Every structure is written in C-alpha cells, then in structure tokens.
C-alpha cells in the first residue's frame, strides 16, 4: 500500500502484516494526544519511497519507540514499536484509499500500563 503525509513530501510503500484487521489505538500520554489509529508492518515491509530527509524523529522516556513525522506538515507517518521493536505501527490515516472512520469501533491498547514496564 502507498501512504503519504498531508503535504506529499513523504511517501511510504508498506505491506501490512494483518491488513487493517489489527487496527488499534493506544492511550499512552503521546498516542492519546496524536489520536492516530495504528496498523502493523514488519520492519522490512516498510520503505520510504520519497522524503526520508523530510522525516523527523521523536523519542522520549525509554527511547525504545521511534516516532516519525513529516517536518513540513507534521503528520505522524509511522513508529517503531516499544512493545515489539521488530514492527512498525503505521498511521492508517496516511494509507491511500483508507478512511479511518470506516474502520468502525477500533480497540484501545493500554499504553499507560505498558507491558515493557512490568
């Protein structure tokens, strides 16, 4: 699937591990503020086609998760997960032909009580 930020400076090509069936939201302090719905891709299944130099990285806390944003329009494109650093969480809203509203009632994961904190 193709994914782009809002301004089009960043373009990704991604193969989703489970399609859209594993769509979820997270309630950690960061995710609940950005409000995206994430879907899963393996690290080798995501490629930045255009705009790698326009992506900016944000990390905090344990610095395990790596969140990328377009530095022009601010759209969160993807992140390397803290729960499984071998996977990316891809913002479903950037994917061509996907309207997050059509995903229905998306389950929440407990990012406040992160499994890695146990």
Present the secondary structure layout.
Elements: E1 2-4, E2 11-14, E3 25-26, H1 31-34, E4 38-42, E5 46-50, E6 55-58, E7 66-70, E8 76-80, E9 87-91, E10 108-109
Parallel strand pairs: 3-10
Antiparallel strand pairs: 1-2, 2-5, 4-9, 6-7, 7-8, 8-9
Structural class from helices and strands? mainly beta
Runs with pLDDT <50, length 5+? Answer: none
Q: Mean pLDDT, nearest integer? A: 92
Q: How widely separated are the two ends?
A: 35 Å
> Count of DSSP helices?
1
The main pleated sheet reads as: 5 strands, antiparallel
Radius of gyration: 13 Å
Q: Report the principal-axis shape.
A: globular
The spatial strand order of the largest sheet comes to 4-9-8-7-6
For the secondary structure, the number of strands is 10
Helix percent reads: under 10%
* β-sheet strand percentage: 25-35%
Instruction: Give helix and strand order, one letter per element, not per position.
Output: EEEHEEEEEEE
Short description:
This protein has 118 residues and is mostly beta strands. Helices cover 3% and strands 34% of the residues.
In words, what does this structure look like?
The structure is a single chain. This protein has 118 residues and is mainly beta. The chain has one helix and ten strands. The chain has one helix at 31-34, and strands spanning 2-4, 11-14, 25-26, 38-42, 46-50, 55-58, 66-70, 76-80, 87-91, 108-109. The chain has a five-stranded antiparallel sheet, with no helix packed on it. The chain has a three-stranded antiparallel sheet with strand order 1-2-5, with no helix packed on it. It has a two-stranded parallel ribbon with strand order 3-10. Strand 6 and strand 7 (66-70) form a beta hairpin. The longest helix has 4 residues, at 31-34. The model has no long low-confidence stretch (mean pLDDT 92).
């Amino acid at each position: 699937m193709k994914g782009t930020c809002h301004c089009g400076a960043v373009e990704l090509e991604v193969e989703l591990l489970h399609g859209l069936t594993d769509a979820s939201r997270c309630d950690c302090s960061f995710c609940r503020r950005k409000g995206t719905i994430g879907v899963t891709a393996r690290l080798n299944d995501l490629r930045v086609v255009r705009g790698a130099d326009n992506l900016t990285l944000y990390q905090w806390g344990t610095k395990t998760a790596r969140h990328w944003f377009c530095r022009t329009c601010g759209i969160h494109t993807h992140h390397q997960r803290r729960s499984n650093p071998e996977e990316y969480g891809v913002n479903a809203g950037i994917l061509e032909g996907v309207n997050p509203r059509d995903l229905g009632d998306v389950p929440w994961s407990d990012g406040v009580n992160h499994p890695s904190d146990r």
